[in-house]
Write a structure and sequence with these properties.
Strand content: 35-45%
Strand order of the largest sheet: 4-3-2-1-5-6
Shape: globular
CATH class: Mainly Beta
Helix content: 10-25%
Radius of gyration: 20 Å
CATH topology: SH3 type barrels
Number of strands: 6
Number of helices: 3
């Protein structure tokens, strides 16, 4: 195994959830003011993701008082205290740079229901009814 691979394995964080472009995320960023440290929330849409390994970055865009604000983060940065996925969106592009020119409702992305993605599919209505009643459906 190469030395670079060993170093990269140490740098990678395991506590960051899988997120995609188009997801609305809330990032807890460590801010140092004076001698104090605090965690500040930055909530926005992931518009780009670049690189891989220890140098992987992503760009988050949010609207603040009618002005677009973009911020770039390293995925494996120690400055990121937490990353939560608020909602997922249906997109068909690798980069969402076109959102920079959109304002208001035109900048809105179509939502994907996160429950659909996480829950198993039900075969038919009988399974759902039996599940609610506490019965185990018969497999034929």
């Amino acid at each position: 195994m190469k030395k670079l691979d060993l170093l990269t394995g140490v740098i990678l964080r395991k506590d960051i959830p899988e997120f995609r472009i188009g997801d609305t995320v809330s990032i807890g960023v460590k801010i140092v003011e004076g001698g104090k440290e605090k965690v500040q929330e930055f909530r926005g849409v992931v518009i780009a993701r670049k690189g891989g390994g220890g140098g992987e970055t992503f760009i988050v865009r949010k609207m603040s008082f009618g002005e677009g604000v973009e911020r770039s983060f390293y995925v494996n940065s120690p400055m990121i205290k937490s990353l939560k996925i608020i909602k997922r969106s249906k997109i068909r592009r690798a980069k969402l740079y076109y959102l920079r020119g959109k304002i208001g409702k035109k900048a809105k992305l179509k939502d994907l229901a996160m429950e659909k993605e996480l829950s198993p599919k039900k075969e038919n209505k009988k399974e759902i009814i039996n599940e609610k009643a506490g019965e185990v459906p018969d497999k034929e």
